[in-house]
Amino acid sequence: MKLTLKPVFGLCAVGAATAVILTVSHLNSWGRDERPAFNVSTTPVKRDAGGGTSYAPVVKKVAPSVVNIYSTHFVKERPMVNPLLNDPFFRQFFGNQFQDNARERTRKEQSLGSGVIVSPDGYILTANHVVAEADEVKVSIADDKKEYTARIIGKDSATDIAVLKIAADNLPAVTLADSDQLEVGDIVLALGNPFGVGQTVTMGIISALGRSGLPGFNQYQNFIQTDAAINPGNSGGALVDVEGRLVGINTAIVSPSGGNNGIGFAVPINMARTVLERLASGGKVTRGYLGIIPQDIDADLAQQFNLPDQNGALIGDVMAGTPAAKAGLKSGDVILSVNGKPVDDAHGLQLTVSQISPGSNVTLKVIRNGVSRTFNVTLAELPGGDSTGGDQNDSDSGNAVADALDGVTVADLDPQVRAELRAPAGIHGALVTDVNSDSNSADAGLQPNDLIVEINRQPVANADDAVRLCKAARGEHILVKIWRRDGNFAGTRFLSVDNTKRAK
Q1: Which residues span the domain enclosing 170?
Q2: Are the beta carbons of 79 and 106 closer than 8 angstroms?
Q3: CA gap 40, 180 in Å, rounded
Q4: Which of 228, 325, 339, 401 could share a disulfide with 405, CB 3.0–4.6 Å?
Q5: What residues form DSSP beta bridges with 246?
């Protein structure tokens, strides 16, 4: 059975609106100089306390802070008209009445989600997909007993977080926790408006932390996973701890049917708070930028680089003119920590750097050639996202590489292929024209159109170099550095190729 990741907002039938609705505009300057005043508690929960008999006191504390969000999107459409009715023969009997009836009409699509009041002066956190296409937004509190119009301060699809503002004061704002203090097994409550039935509370535990790599969802993933029931309409709602502090914003479920199956996800409040503060103060989310292409470290790469374990992010490439290049970082360096915070893998490094403001000075602990070093880097602002995709050239001719890269065919990099790959003038190597799917190189990830630039840290200028170095290679694993073009994205990375088996 195929499992799918689904955002958890609900579609509602269109009904008559009784409240005045303010058209939403994307305001880059509205509220630019404001700072949300929210309450934060960073103390861990008391995990040694005995289990209580009721969570009613927690619910009473949090429930007033959780709101219902109704977003409306207007769709213009023209009804289908039979082409025969345009025929003059039919028009002499019916005139233009069918064409007049086929005028463009506006249809209303309405969706339902949840949100959380995070400051007394009206700032509300919700999931981006709840309001992503909204033309109008209403917010109701106290189970629809009071309605407000809302403005979208900003949206961040990369984290699936949006920030709303309503014109009200002295609102019951929730207290924010420190989501970095969470542990697997902590009890949590999920509050929201599933299926539009009204505010509902479910209970479960945190079943995992730092979930990432989920397909078809937002770019920056660091999800809290919980078995507290999350259903359509819960999107943007609160995930709180047993002290009633907000630890996450509910956002998605894994489900084959669209209903709860005990695997729900929430954006950690620390990540959501960073987005909120930047949207409220500057109208957009700015993220720190190092200018490297990091990759995970597997057991083979750890052995090749003489690392004690697989923790850290290996620098595959350093972009010219970027903060990393200016600080002296090099391809082959392994980043172990940022400002003292350990780096587990490439995704963890990207998350950490993205949440640091551009212009900040950071300290990186790095291993280079087995020696620990420290680098101070001033982060730049992450450039806009580049599109991906595009075809690459396939070549059918070349020299078979013996021994270490058995099953691989390479050729010299001629000017035509260089132009097609848009390879920089400073990149030299052997072009991979074919890889046997059953070979050790294919298992390691080598692909046609890769450029082999190093073998066992020795430079490769052409196909002859690749063949020569492969014949001379010894050991159970061979370290291969490649340059790869993938659409508009390009850079170098390392592969560790098993040298103990051969292509079939």
Answers
A1: 1-26+58-97+105-285
A2: no
A3: 13
A4: 401
A5: 176, 240
Task: Using pLDDT thresholds of 50, 70 and 90, give the confidence band for residue 342.
Answer: very high
Alpha helix (H) residue ranges in 283-395: 299-304, 323-327, 346-354
Instruction: Classify 203 as helix, strand or coil.
Output: strand
> Would you state the pLDDT for residue 28?
38
Known active-site residue 300: no
From 381, 407, 422, give the residue that closes a domain.
Answer: 381
The secondary structure of 229-246, three-state, reads CCCCCCCCCEEEECCCEE
Write out pLDDT tens, residues 420-464: 788 888 888 888 888 887 788 888 888 888 899 888 888 888 887
Determine, yes or no, domain membership for 42. no
pTM greater than 0.70: no
3-state percent helix, strand, coil for the chain, nearest multiple of 5: 20, 35, 45
Question: Residue 23 carries which DSSP code?
Answer: B
Q: Do residues 435 and 441 make contact, with C-beta atoms less than 8 angstroms apart?
A: yes
Q: For residues 346 and 406, which has the higher predicted lDDT (pLDDT)?
A: 346
For tokens 């969570």, name the residue.
Answer: 55
Q: What is the mean pLDDT of residues 283-290?
A: 85
* Candidate list 156, 160, 406, 434, residue with the active-site label: 160
Q: Which residue has the tokens 């720190």?
A: 288
Is residue 356 domain-shared with residue 242, that is, in the same domain? no
The tokens for 52 are 């209580």
Segment 348-390, tens digit of pLDDT: 898 899 889 899 999 999 999 989 999 999 998 887 633 222 2
For residue 397, indicate whether it is catalytic. Answer: no
Which listed residue (111, 114, 129, 496) is catalytic? 129
Check residue 85 and report its DSSP letter: G
CB 70 within 8 A of CB 140: yes
Of 285, 303, 335, the residue at which a domain comes to its end is 285
Backbone angles phi, psi at 126, to 5 degrees: -150, 180
Q: Is 440 domain-assigned? A: yes
| Phi and psi, residue 466, nearest 5° | -60, -45
Q: Catalytic site residue 129?
A: yes
Please check whether residues 292 and 320 belong to one and the same domain.
yes
Q: Do residues 464 and 410 lie in contact, with contact meaning Cβ atoms separated by under 8 Å?
A: no
| Bridge partners (DSSP) listed for residue 395 | none
* Residue 425, C-beta contacts closer than 8 angstroms, at least 6 positions apart: none
Of 235, 255, 439, 441, which is the active-site residue? 235
Residue 478 in tokens: 């061979």
Contact 66, 118 (CB under 8 A): no
> What is residue 440's three-state secondary structure?
helix
Sign of CA dihedral 12, 17, 20, 26: positive
183 and 331 part of one domain: no
Whether 352 contacts 337, CB under 8 Å: no
Strands 371-378 and 313-318: what pairing? unpaired
